[in-house]
Every structure is written in structure tokens, then in C-alpha cells.
Specification:
Layout: H1 7-24, H2 28-34, H3 39-47, H4 66-79, H5 81-101, H6 104-117, E1 122-124, E2 140-144, E3 147-158, E4 165-172, E5 175-182, E6 188-192, E7 204-215, E8 219-220, H7 226-262, E9 264-265, E10 268-269, H8 274-302, H9 308-332, H10 334-337, H11 345-354, H12 361-373
Parallel strand pairs: 1-4
Antiparallel strand pairs: 2-3, 3-7, 4-5, 5-8, 6-7, 9-10
Helix pairs in contact: 1-4, 4-5, 4-7, 5-7, 7-8, 7-9, 7-11, 8-9, 9-11, 9-12
Bound molecules: flavin-adenine dinucleotide.
Length: 374
């Protein structure tokens, strides 16, 4: 299968490249240093439709398929891994969950709010005592009349603090349900988790629910469907995370090519030494392999075909390639690569999250093996 980008999609990708160069590159270091994305940048991104890029045009979105969306994340990640993660967590997880499974009433409410206010949606599955083993969650719901009361704690939630709307999974009489929660609900405490290693700028929060009341119409889909919905959402999220990882790997390669052609040692630029050339060749080959896996998974996803194994493979390989590429890029830059001023360290710090988020790489291998052995 070979997916051909339409002329319109090619134009969108070049506009995102241009947008990123103009609006993200100049402040990428500040986003990383301050672990904060200015509100105006979200507004500018939404002026290009980036916060509703996978939502159909009939709802006011750009209606882009996974194939193009993952390439947009790849472009943004070259400039800011934190911003790319923010876009991913919003589009694939928070807003994506609402769009795929919620009632028309909730969909319209959240999409319209996003278009108007350019504020990302959060998605909360992970808890302090259950991450990979997410089914083992403690956050609970209890139905009393026509409201649900939520109690419990969620951790490491992207946009946990800055969001207006949060999709949360909780356990109760009907099994695991997904709910749309208003971030300003009484009884909900939200705290920013500080000192994150990478993907800085994407705010990461801890949420504590003390008898938070949620109206019954904010149940997403049917009772007991929450976990199955979350697993489906993560499939798409893995392809998107792989797209970010690819962008980080490419940035590491590009910087390495540039630097190796400038740096002189023993009378030659280091690019003339086979040891360095082999590094570049390995990086480029692995990047291309990851790209093929991502494109293949994205095509299956867009055709609504089974993609569980392929999404995990794409995420597993691309995140490893991102880590390896960043590590080698630092090596090629020698001592300069070790200092923050040069900016190579950011790719290593950002890449590490790609091996953890949307299910760790150990979890991806469990999924791949399960699919092989079923
Ligand atoms: C910056 C950041 C943003 C995040 N954003 C979100 C978000 O928006 N929403 C959300 O819900 N979550 C989010 N997360 C949470 C993330 O998805 C979890 O951290 C991840 O799923 C791992 O869970 P854990 O941290 O509890 O690790 P654990 O599950 O405790 O795993 C610890 C280690 O044990 C390994 N392990 C666990 N089980 C097995 C097994 N059966 N076999 C082999 N090895 C195993 C893991 O691979 C890992 O290496 C975010 C995390 C970070 C760091």
C-alpha cells in the first residue's frame, strides 16, 4: 500500500513547517527552559486548525487522516518535543476520545470550546499505583440519582492543570467508565508536577478527586465501556507518538550532518572519517525503517483495519530510533554536545518520554507478542 498525499495535504504540511519555523523555533529554548507554552501560541496554532486537525470538517476541524496528522507531529517535534506531545495528548487522547465515543451533545460542546478558546483537553488514565497495569485503577465512581460522584487520584496527566475539560477513566458498579469532567468542578484539586526531564512545555499534572460530581450526561459512551475505549484511543496515540519520535530522530540526524561537515579534527572535517559516516548511515537507515512502520500503521488506521500490533511496532521502533539518534548526535558533537547551550541534550530528554508514554516499550512488546501468539 502506498498512500499518496493530496496537493492540499502537501500544502498543509509545508504551512506547518513554515508556521513552526516562524512561531515555535524562536521560543523553543524558552519553552524548554520555563516548561511552559504561552497561551498565545495555542491560539496561533488553532488559527491554523492544529487543535482540531483530526476532527471532520463538518464539526469545524481540518479532517486530516492519521497519515497526515502523524507527519504534522513529526514536523512540530523537530522544533519542540514538548509542544508536539501537547498537540498529541490533546488531539489523540483528550479530544480524540470525546470525538470517537461521546454523545453529539458532548462532542459539540468540547469541539466548539476548543475552537473558540484554543485550550487543550486532558486525558487521565494513569494513577500513582497503576500505570502499565491501568485496569487495576483505584479511582472510583458511584451513581447517586442523576449524578456520578468521583473519588481518587490521577498522575502524570498532560494538560492536567491547564485544561478546561478532562476525560477520566474510573471504576464502579458497571466496571470502568469514561467521563468528561469539567476541570473547574468543586472537589477537584490540580497540581503541576515540576522538574520534568524532557518534553517540557507540555504541562503535566496530578489530579485529586474528592466527591467530584459529574452529571450523568457526561458519561462517555455506555457504562462499562471505558477501558475498551481507552485501549482503542491508545492505539492511535501510539502512531502519533511514533510520529513525534521520528521528528526528534530527524532533528538529531540533521544537526549531526551539519556539525560533522564543520568540525575539523586531525586536519579534516569529521564527516570525512568513516567512523562518523557509519553513525550517520545507521541513523538515516533506522529513521527510514521507522518511517515505513509509521506510514504502514497510519494507513491501516485510516482504513479502519486492525492496527494493534502495527501501532505498537511503530511506537516501539521509532522511540528507540529517537533515543539512539539523540545519543549518537551528542557523541558526534563531542564535548559541545554535553552542554545545554548547544541544544542537542533536548532531543535525548524528549526522546526518552517516547519510550514511556502511551504504554512503555515493554508493554508494546507484550502487545506485539500477544498478537503473534493469539
Ligand atoms: C511526561 C508524561 C506525560 C504523561 N501523560 C499522560 C497522560 O496525559 N495521561 C495518562 O493517563 N498518563 C500519562 N502519562 C503516564 C504514562 O502513560 C505512564 O507513566 C506509563 O504508562 C507507565 O506507567 P508507570 O509510570 O506507572 O510505570 P509502571 O507501569 O510502574 O512501570 C515501571 C516499569 O516496569 C515495567 N513493567 C510494568 N509491567 C511490566 C510487565 N508486565 N512486564 C515487563 N515490564 C513491565 C514498565 O515497562 C516500566 O519499565 C504520562 C507520563 C509522563 C512521564
Amino acid at each position: 500500500m502506498v498512500y499518496e498525499l493530496t496537493e492540499e495535504q502537501k500544502i498543509i504540511l509545508s504551512q506547518v513547517e513554515e508556521f513552526s519555523k516562524k512561531n515555535i523555533e524562536p521560543i523553543a529554548k524558552t519553552i524548554d527552559a520555563d516548561d511552559h507554552v504561552p497561551k498565545e501560541l495555542y491560539r496561533k496554532m488553532q488559527d491554523y486548525g492544529l487543535l482540531t486537525m483530526t476532527i471532520p470538517e463538518s464539526y469545524g476541524g481540518l479532517g486530516l487522516p492519521m497519515f497526515v496528522y502523524s507527519k504534522i507531529l513529526e514536523i512540530v517535534a523537530k522544533y519542540s518535543g514538548g509542544l508536539a506531545l501537547s498537540l498529541e495528548a490533546h488531539n489523540s487522547l483528550g479530544l480524540g476520545h470525546v470525538f470517537l465515543f461521546a454523545s453529539e451533545y458532548l462532542k459539540k460542546m468540547v469541539i466548539d470550546y476548543t475552537i473558540e478558546n484554543a485550550v487543550p483537553v486532558a486525558w487521565a488514565l494513569t494513577e500513582p499505583t497503576s500505570g502499565s497495569d491501568a485496569k487495576n485503577m483505584n479511582t472510583s465512581y458511584k451513581k447517586i440519582g442523576n449524578i456520578y460522584k468521583i473519588n481518587g487520584e490521577k498522575i502524570f496527566i498532560t494538560h492536567g492543570v491547564s485544561s478546561k475539560y478532562i476525560v477520566i477513566m474510573a471504576k464502579g458498579d458497571n466496571g470502568i467508565n469514561a467521563f468528561l469532567v469539567d476541570g473547574e468542578s468543586p472537589g477537584l484539586e490540580r497540581t503541576k508536577i515540576k522538574d520534568k526531564l524532557g518534553v517540557r512545555g507540555s504541562d503535566t499534572g496530578e489530579l485529586v478527586f474528592n466527591d467530584v460530581e459529574v452529571p450523568e450526561e457526561n458519561l462517555i459512551g455506555n457504562p462499562g465501556e471505558g477501558f475498551r475505549q481507552a485501549m482503542k484511543i491508545l492505539e492511535g496515540g501510539r502512531i502519533a507518538i511514533a510520529g513525534i519520535a521520528l521528528g526528534l530522530a530527524e532533528a538529531s540526524l540533521n544537526l549531526s550532518i551539519e556539525y560533522s561537515k564543520e568540525r575539523v579534527a586531525f586536519g579534516n572535517t569529521i564527516s570525512q572519517y568513516e567512523g562518523i559516516q557509519f553513525y550517520l548511515a545507521d541513523m538515516a537507515t533506522n529513521i527510514q525503517a521507522a518511517r515505513h512502520l509509521i506510514e504502514h500503521a497510519a494507513e491501516l488506521y485510516d482504513k479502519n483495519l486492525p492496527v494493534r500490533k502495527e501501532a505498537s511496532m511503530a511506537k516501539y521502533l521509532a522511540s528507540q530510533v529517537a533515543m539512539d539518534s539523540a545519543r549518537i548526535a551528542i557523541q558526534i558533537h563531542g564535548g559541545y554536545g554535553y552542554f545545554r547551550d548547544f541544544g542537542i541534550d533536548k532531543y535525548l530528554r524528549d526522546a526518552k518520554l517516547m519510550e514511556i508514554g502511551e504504554g512503555t516499550n515493554e508493554v508494546q512488546k507484550i502487545i506485539i507478542a500477544k498478537e503473534l501468539l493469539k
